[in-house]
Specification:
The chain has 73 residues and is α+β, with helices and mostly antiparallel strands. It has helices at residues 9-22, 39-45, 57-70, and strands at 29-33, 49-53. It is globular, with a radius of gyration of 12 Å.
């Protein structure tokens, strides 16, 4: 599974800035449209119900390969 530490520094910084602006919340239903490889979906899925949608087949395949390696499906 791709984590924040695995991203290029500028991408990780951008995500941290956006997450700080959005804030933390719990027990919400979230739709992450255009989720890429799912880093933001993973971030919010710890305390919320997240549906991640990604139209790019390449990103979905990369996500699937990453999650199956870690044993998550």
């Amino acid at each position: 599974m791709q984590t924040l530490k695995m991203l290029p520094p500028w991408d990780a910084l951008m995500k941290r800035m956006v997450w700080q602006q959005i804030g933390e919340f719990e027990n919400k239903r979230i739709l992450d449209f255009g989720s890429g490889t799912g880093v933001t979906a993973n971030h919010y899925a710890n305390k919320n119900s997240v549906i991640a949608i990604e139209p790019s087949e390449e990103a979905v395949n990369a996500r699937w390969q990453e999650t199956t390696k870690s044993g998550v499906s």
